[in-house]
Amino acid sequence: MVEHQSVQDIAALLKSDTPPHIIDVREQWEWDIAHIEGSTLIPLSTLPAQVHTLDTSRTYALLCHHGMRSEMAANWLAQHGFASLINIDGGIDAWSLDVDPSLPRY
């Protein structure tokens, strides 16, 4: 099952003792505009080819522009044995509005 959390909740979790690892499923050109420091870029179209690089026992928070692609990615990962998944509601757009206004919006 995929959990949904706000950008504010994720920002708080990133400061905790057990932060989730953020997987950004946007495209390279989007990442180049704005991304969360410490996140990993794995575009949705390449996720099946790169899934072997991920640890099924870790907690991953999935991010895209607004939350649609990340939800698709999280659901796909859940179907492939990943148990601890979070979709970041509102994506990088909400992050730039509510957490880090220094990130450009597009």
Keywords:
106 residues; alpha/beta; five-stranded parallel β-sheet; 5 helices; globular
What does this structure look like?
This protein has five helices and five strands. It has a five-stranded parallel β-sheet with strand order 1-5-4-2-3. The longest helix has 12 residues, at 68-79. The protein is an alpha/beta fold and 106 residues long.
**Beta strand %:** 15-25%
Briefly note the structural class of the backbone. Answer: alpha/beta
Record field, number of beta strands = 5
Low-confidence runs: none
Q: How many individual helices? A: 5
Radius of gyration: 13 Å
Multimer state? single chain
How are strands sequenced across the largest beta sheet? 1-5-4-2-3
Along the chain, the helix and strand elements come as EHEHEHEHEH
Mean pLDDT, to the nearest integer, reads: 97
Report the helical percentage.
Answer: 25-40%
- Give a quick account of the main beta sheet: strands, pairing sense, barrel closure: 5 strands, parallel
Present the secondary structure layout.
Layout: E1 2-5, H1 7-14, E2 21-24, H2 28-33, E3 40-41, H3 47-50, E4 59-63, H4 68-79, E5 84-88, H5 91-98
Parallel strand pairs: 1-5, 2-3, 2-4, 4-5
Summarize the structure.
The chain is α/β, with parallel strands linked by helices and 106 residues long.
